[in-house]
Task: structure prediction
Amino acid sequence: MDRLNKKQIEELLPHREPMLLIDELYDIKKLSSAIGVVNVKKNSFFVQGHFPDNPVMPGVLIVEAFGQSAAALTAHGIDKSTYENKLVFLMGVEKARFRNPVIPDCKLMLKIEAIRSHGKVWKYKGEAFVDDIKMADAIWSATIVDRK
Result:
């Protein structure tokens, strides 16, 4: 399977509405890369306050969507017994650039790549696009920890 829908993503991640940002993960290459999809809508939870009459998806939520896509990629690729009762926590963002504003209604495409892993620590990079225009890019690290 190289495509996960929102219900399948919910089986991998602890995030729930409104904080589950990714709607789909596809073109999955096991533990290597994938493309996440965020349907940025006019009724998305952040639109009303960021900013009224001029809505923009906050950069921090773009980074969160990168992280969720990477967590789903990793959880989907590792043995389920390794991932059960675990969470993936963001450890650091080395670099994040926001090149263009992400304005509703659009489909934000997140190209995610796992750069390396060392034990429970993973490093990723990602690029975000709307209609083939680069909106943002980032490099970040995350770790897998016990749920409790």
